[in-house]
Each structure stands twice: as structure tokens, then as C-alpha cells.
Amino acid sequence: MSHITPAVIAVHAAVREQAPLVQCITNYVSMDLAANVLNAAGASPAMVHDPREAGEFAALAGAVVANIGTLSPRWVDGMLDSVEVARDANKPWVLDPVAVGATSYRRESVDRLLELDPTVIRGNASEVLTIATRTAGGKGVDSDASLDDVREHADALAKRTGSIVAVTGPEDYVTDGEREPIALRGGDPRMPLITALGCSLSALVGACVAAHDDAFEATTAALAMLSAAGEIAGASAEGPGSLRWRLLDELARLDAGGLAQHVGR
């Protein structure tokens, strides 16, 4: 990671300086934490999903995040309206295919969204594997696949779609199918016990791609920021409850020095 450290620090600074507005069409479970993660990182969250206003709002946002965690037909319509506006305006948008392998409705919805050229696809190993191979998989919202199972599929998916693909878990993996992929370790092993932290990471990716033109570097920076904050918070957290609020505190106070120390190992 050391070769990309300057880019990660630049993205972090850009988010702080620009405070990008991120439209999060996300699930009920994640709204609170996603908004707080964005605020702590220096971005501006907006949870706008109804199709009566979602597309119009997307014209104002710096990026759109479409998260399928709690799907309904109207929310899918809002996602489609928003990401179509974003794509047509050359604004970045992030797809979070939560539990895409669980039901046919989720797979069909993701297929429709993929047609609108996501800038970034961010998911766990099972979610990315499902999209890449078009087979059902996963254990609800949890992954039952490993990074070793999905690396080559993630590379192929990125190449096929033109999207950055970020596979997150105990080890994170970022690929665009062309450049040397980035592997990132860190965080705290209790982070999966914080509900919707992965969804919040997708929102943070949205902030970073809104603030920085290189989506590969921006995505890597978002993963590094949350990982660094989680690792620092974990040193004094007694469990997942205190880890949650400590992570927000550490994300808010994270500076270039702390970030460089984390990603430069």
C-alpha cells in the first residue's frame, strides 16, 4: 500500500475540503450510521429515495449511492431515477448489492442497476461472486465466500463492467481489471458485529469518488480511512457498542499522519 499512500492522503484531504453532498438511497438499518460516518469524514449526507424527488435531487449531489438492503418497488424506482441522472451528468455512483444472491428480486434489481454503469461496485465476497458468476450465494447479508474465491472473478467483473470493484471483509481488495489490485488489511475483528458498517463504507466510497477524479484511488482511500479508524478505535473499545462510537470519533479526528501510518505499513 505504501506506493498509494500519497493518493489516499490526498483523497482524505479533498473530502475534508470539499464536503461533498452524497445522496444515499440506502436501507432502513443503515441510514443512521451511514449519515454519521459521512459527517465524521467531513462529507454531507442526504437520505433521499422517493422517486418523486430522488432524480431531481441527484442533480444536486456530488455522488449517488444505491444500496439494495431493504428493497421495495418505489425504492428501486428512486435508485434507477437517481443513478440515471448521475450517469448522464458524468457524476459517480456506487452500487452496494446487499445480499444479492438471496432472492430473484434482488438479482433482477441489481441487473437493472448494472445497466447504468456504476462507478464502483462495493460488496462482500459472496455478493461480488454472485454478480460476477450470476449464481445465487451468500448467507443472507453475510458472506460465505472468501477473498481467495473471488479475486479473479472481481478482476473479470471490473474489466467487463468498467467499474471499480471493491471486495471487503477481513482483507479488502480493490481492482479495476487493469491496474495492479490493492489489498488492504487492518480494522478491528469486531467491526462485522456493527450492523450496517459495510453499508456505511459504501456511503464513504461515495464521498471519496465525489471528491477525487480517480475512482480507483478514491475507493482505496475510503477503505483505508474506515480501516484506520476502526483499528485505532479497537485499541480502547470494550466491545462492538463502544467500538461503534469510538470508530466515529476516530474517523472524525483522523489526520494525514494517522492515515499514512496505517496505509504505509
TrEMBL record:
Catalyzed chemical reaction(s): 5-(2-hydroxyethyl)-4-methylthiazole + ATP = 4-methyl-5-(2-phosphooxyethyl)-thiazole + ADP + H(+)
Annotated GO MF terms: ATP binding; hydroxyethylthiazole kinase activity; magnesium ion binding
InterPro entries hit by this protein: Hyethyz_kinase, Ribokinase-like
Source organism superkingdom: Bacteria
Listed Gene3D superfamilies: 3.40.1190.20
GO terms classed as biological process: thiamine biosynthetic process; thiamine diphosphate biosynthetic process
Annotated pathway: Cofactor biosynthesis; thiamine diphosphate biosynthesis; 4-methyl-5-(2-phosphoethyl)-thiazole from 5-(2-hydroxyethyl)-4-methylthiazole: step 1/1
EC number: 2.7.1.50
Binding site for substrate: 47, 196
Cofactor list: Mg(2+)
Annotated keywords: ATP-binding, Kinase, Magnesium, Metal-binding, Nucleotide-binding, Thiamine biosynthesis, Transferase
SUPFAM superfamilies: Ribokinase-like (SSF53613)
Binding site for ATP: 122, 168
Entry annotated with the keyword ATP-binding: yes
Function: Catalyzes the phosphorylation of the hydroxyl group of 4-methyl-5-beta-hydroxyethylthiazole (THZ).
Family as reported in the entry's similarity comment: Belongs to the Thz kinase family.
Name under which the protein is recorded: Hydroxyethylthiazole kinase
